[in-house]
Specification:
Largest sheet of chain A: none
Helix content of chain A: over 70%
Oligomer: heterodimer
Strand content of chain B: 25-35%
Number of helices of chain A: 14
Radius of gyration of chain B: 25 Å
Shape of chain B: elongated
Order of helices and strands of chain A: HHHHHHHHHHHHHH
Largest interface: A-B, 32 and 47 residues
CATH topology of the largest domain in chain B: D-amino Acid Aminotransferase, Chain A, domain 1
């Protein structure tokens, strides 16, 4: 018990200082920064998407002509999209939604043929969307912050020897405070501004950081590192793909083509039992000299 | 164009393991493998050595009611479905004061700490998806003294991959400081490939693929080569592995982790329904090529399975020869000594004809009969052959050990009718690796 108390005190102090500090900032900023506060709250409600693919999917696209012609079986999805648009569904949401399977396909191709590994297909896809919202650099910054806070708080929490779930809750507390601090700090910079992001990118990043901590506990640090870096790389590929104008256009104007592509690519990759590119490197040292000469 | 792919064909790749070989494992038996408790129950029933279970906690109440002070020490606490050796505490003995225990590295741990750890396990800290996981308290295995010379931390074990009831590959896994005492290659442990025929180590890797040539010997306090370490109880270890698959038949492709106890011999800690692929790197051999050989072979008994492993997958001499060593010369006709019993004195000398046109060596049926090779237990399998004259026949393939020019060769040869021919033994190119053939006799 004697060993625990100073650490406990320190952590309480850190907590208090963080709490008070942010409160003071909030109080001082209350009068001057009110407009930003009000502008933040509405973005929590709508999806990430609204400001994401601003380049093509801003509201004005609705006024752009979306010709589908008569129904001939091959343009069913286009007709449905047009209908949804007239009913007021945001175009960018439709594009992003239909893009999800495409990104997941990209992730599975990179995994089964190139050997890049992350946390499944869903996690990289999610992080890719996060990158769209925050920008790749901003997203990495956010993730780095969450991870560092997570690891530091784990270091302290391990010494406290408390139950597992309460420990996770305290960890989340640190993450929330840290993210809040980061949003505040970056709002002063032009280069990366994370002050306007909604809650979802933050949640996804917290999820990834949690997964990292968990893998580190259950498997090993090396494994956790390679899986997390892999997820981020896959996500970067995904978000670059999502940012391509022509891909967004294919999805909006030829969604049937996208469906066909996703089906064909996944059936081909799904039946691939050959070697992954990364495995050449792995098995290189396992080839005996006598075989090499052949 | 794809010639560079050829040396890679022998390997089992991740895609193929997942898509082809893991399908051979039924969901029900995969769940058995995931639970150390159920594995232990099934294996114990099949008379396979497993560490004795002292207690299993499913709830906090059971944990609270357990009288730790009744234990004498020498126990292990592990999560039932833990992965990669995480969450395991090994207690050596009681410490000086009541309520305190000594771990393997001499650290002191209190009963309170042990209870808290058990609660963590119950809360699902060490299970993959955070689900509640029972705690197992079992008897500690006393490591075989031979292993103590190689590691100071953790328990080294032997991973045997069994497919179609035959051991196909094995490795010796040594925990290191880096791996945190875990015998898991993913965590940075050292893996040494093992020759299935002799139980002697061959090559080594650290982690998932870094080749190493030397490891530290704590007994002699210096580095030693990774090859040439003889694993004791080798035959028993292979038998245990084969019996595990017989006990859990739903796992057609599995890895068995065997530990050697000082007194009780081979003990199975757990079986793995998704064995890793790095074993191929420390053996410098492909699982795929080996498993292909086993397709359509019907394994008759444990004995037969081990004979198959020995003669089909044993290291050939040419691979053991260091590059510096001189290549030996053989003439068109050579006298070979065929092993007929234990020891170096039991052999029969036979004249053999060298024939590089044949892949496998063959032995005359009458001679094989004389040597007792056509025993039902010694025949590895029957294979369809096409002779040079275009005649088709089914020939038995038998395991054979012989000496050629002083080199011991362990191999599989086929039995053929050579009674009209002068030489009763034909040496194929498979067994001529490391020899140079001279046309002059």
């Amino acid at each position: 018990m004697r060993k625990i108390t100073p650490i406990f005190l320190i952590s309480v102090l850190i907590l208090l200082s963080l709490f008070c500090g942010s409160q003071i900032l909030a109080v001082t900023g209350k009068t001057s920064v009110t407009p930003t506060v009000t502008s933040v709250s509405p973005t929590i409600v709508p999806t990430v998407v609204a400001e994401v693919s601003a380049n093509i999917t801003e509201p004005e696209i609705k006024q752009v002509r979306y010709d589908v012609g008569k129904w001939n079986g091959f343009n069913t999805i286009r007709i449905l999209i047009k209908w949804a648009m007239t009913r007021g569904v945001a175009t960018n949401t439709i594009v992003l939604l239909l893009m999800l399977p495409l990104i997941a396909t990209l992730v599975s191709v990179l995994h089964y043929i190139f050997g890049l590994t992350g946390y499944g297909t869903f996690m990289p896809t999610m992080i890719a969307i996060t990158f769209l919202a925050t920008g790749i650099f901003g997203g990495l910054l956010l993730f780095a912050m969450i991870l560092i806070v997570s690891l530091l708080s784990n270091l302290i929490l391990r010494r406290l020897r408390i139950h597992f779930w309460p420990a996770r809750s305290i960890n989340l507390l640190f993450i929330s405070l840290g993210t809040f601090g980061l949003m505040l700090i970056t709002s002063f910079f032009k280069l990366v501004d994370l002050s306007q992001i909604s809650i979802f990118p933050i949640l996804f990043m917290v999820l990834l950081a949690e997964e990292f901590v968990r893998t580190q506990l259950v498997k090993s640090r090396k494994e956790a590192r390679s899986l997390t870096v892999g997820t981020l790389i896959l996500a970067i590929f995904g978000s670059i793909t999502m940012n391509f104008n022509w891909i967004q256009n294919i999805i909006l104007y030829n969604p049937e083509l996208m469906v066909l592509m996703v089906l064909i690519i996944n059936l081909v990759v799904g039946n691939y039992t050959g070697i992954r590119l990364a495995e050449f490197n792995r098995f290189k040292s396992a080839i005996r000299d006598s075989n090499k000469k052949k | 164009m794809f010639a560079f792919l050829k040396p890679y064909r022998q390997f089992l790749t991740k895609n193929e393991r997942n898509k082809v070989y893991l399908r051979k494992n039924t969901t029900a038996d995969r769940m058995v493998a995931d639970s150390k408790y159920r594995t232990k129950k099934i294996l114990a029933k099949a008379n396979i050595g497993v560490p004795l279970l002292i207690k299993r906690f499913k709830t906090i109440e059971e944990l609270d009611n357990f009288r730790w002070e009744d234990l004498e020490g020498n126990f292990v606490i592990k999560p039932e479905s833990g992965y990669g050796g995480e969450g395991i505490i090994i207690i050596r003995r009681r410490a000086k004061w009541a309520g305190e225990w000594q771990k393997m590295n001499g650290q002191i741990i209190t009963t309170q700490d042990i209870k808290l750890h058990c609660q963590d396990v119950l809360a699902g800290r060490y299970s993959m998806h955070g689900a509640s996981d029972p705690v197992l308290v079992e008897e500690r295995i006393r490591i075989h003294p031979m292993f103590l010379a190689i590691t100071k931390v953790g328990t080294p074990d032997i991973r045997v991959i069994v497919y179609n009831k035959v051991p196909v590959m094995a490795m010796f896994r040594i925990p290191t400081e880096k791996s945190g005492g875990k015998a898991n290659l993913q965590q940075g442990a050292v893996g040494l490939g093992i020759d299935l025929a002799s139980g002697i180590t061959t090559f080594g890797i650290e982690g998932k693929g870094e080749p190493i040539r030397r490891i530290y010997d704590y007994g002699k306090k210096k580095m030693r080569k990774v090859n040439g370490i003889k694993i004791p109880f080798w035959k028993e270890i292979l038998e245990t592995a084969v019996n595990c698959q017989k006990a859990i038949p739903g796992l057609g492709f599995l890895g068995v982790d065997v530990v050697l106890d000082k007194e009780k011999g081979p003990m199975v800690l757990e079986v793995n329904a998704r064995p890793g692929l790095s074993i191929q790197i420390c053996n410098k051999a492909g699982l795929k090529a080996r498993m292909d050989k086993l397709e359509e072979i019907e394994v008759r008994s444990t004995e037969h399975a081990i004979t198959l492993a020995k003669y089909l997958f044993g290291e050939s001499f040419s691979d053991k020869v260091e590059e510096k060593e001189k290549v030996k010369l053989v003439g068109p006709l050579e006298n070979i000594k065929i092993k007929t019993g234990k020891g170096k004195k039991n052999f029969k000398e036979v004249t053999a004809k060298i024939d590089t046109g044949a892949y496998r060596s063959s032995i005359d049926r009458v001679l094989a009969q004389e040597l007792g090779l056509l025993d039902e237990n010694k025949i590895l399998y029957y294979r369809h052959y096409k002779s040079a004259l275009g005649k088709n026949n089914d020939r038995p393939v038998v395991g054979l050990t012989f000496w050629l020019n002083g080199r011991k060769i362990v191999t599989a040869v086929n039995v053929a009718d050579r009674h009209k021919l002068r030489t009763k033994f034909l040496l194929g190119r498979k067994d001529l690796g490391g020899f140079l053939i001279s046309a002059k006799s």
